[in-house]
Task: structure prediction
Amino acid sequence: MSFLEVMQSRYTTKKFDASKKITPENIEALKEILQLAPSSINSQPWKFTFVSNSEIKAKLADVSWINTSKILNCDTLIVLSRVKSLEAFEARIEKELPQGAVGFYNDFIKKLPEPQIYAWFEKQVYLALGVLLSACADMGIDATPMEGIEPDAYDTILGQKEHTTLVAVAIGYRDADDTNQPHIKPKSRTALKNVIEEI
Result:
């Protein structure tokens, strides 16, 4: 399949088949793909937590509003988090990034109010989210991105001290009865002419 065909066929899975498992090789591939995700100045202000432990998944499901069944039945839950400490982030980029990248951060990002800096971090995490969803689709893995979760509760359950949860993605394989499948419920998107402009 071409990538266009992959995107035409992917959808947000509403019901997973708990009996179907993702191969360890594919899980490892997704980890490496996330490691390679792009970010502004290669800042990488993130952490990705792969949760397959059923007890931890159940605890996270309890603090995920309407997404409980998706988390319980998916193969793996991937939690995407951003860095919490500006000081720790700045110390890391000073050691790891070239001076030009650090200079860009100091000249254009560091001067912003703290909420805007954290918003910039979050934009980078969402770049990685797009890569993850695309990779899953290309690998034939079904995925459901979820903001309908309680981030503080996630942080407590996962023992996160240096990062804070933004979004979670349930991955696995669709149940045959999932009514959100494109052949049952066709994709709904704004017309191409309304979202694309040529100049």
